[in-house]
Design brief:
Layout (H helix, E strand, L loop, with lengths): L9 H10 L4 E7 L3 H13 L7 E7 L4 H6 L7 E8 L2 E4 L5 E2 L3 H11 L1
Parallel strand pairs: 1-2
Antiparallel strand pairs: 1-3, 3-4, 3-5
């Protein structure tokens, strides 16, 4: 069963991009395994501490393999951070994180907010 915050299609992602205004968008690219789903649930449970202006969404590269290439995802899990810059949504590529470090994730979110 997919996580309720999963992006299921490229159209879903495009629609999400259109909805972002002043929020920080965090896209997490995973392989969709049971182990990663467990970790995603842990992150999701504590994510409320990050604030209301954070939108968290998950993308399974096993279900949407084209996304892996489109977004240059080399390793699962990869956390990408997106924000509006002069009216255009863009990735903060210098903030990309690979792996499962919850403490680093929360530090990064605090810094970016």
């Amino acid at each position: 069963m997919p996580h309720p915050h999963s992006v299921k299609t490229e159209a879903d992602l495009s629609k999400l991009f259109d909805q972002i205004t002043n929020e920080l968008l965090v896209l997490v690219f995973t392989d969709g395994s049971i182990e990663e789903l467990r970790r995603l649930l842990e992150i999701d449970e504590t994510f409320g501490e990050a604030g209301e202006n954070v939108v968290l969404r998950f993308i399974s590269t096993s279900k949407l393999p084209q996304m892996k290439e489109s977004y240059n995802i080399v390793k699962n899990a990869t956390f990408t951070f997106w924000r509006m810059f002069s009216g255009i949504l863009g990735e903060m590529t210098g903030e990309r994180m690979c792996g499962w470090d919850n403490a680093l994730l929360h530090q990064t979110l605090k810094r970016l907010l």
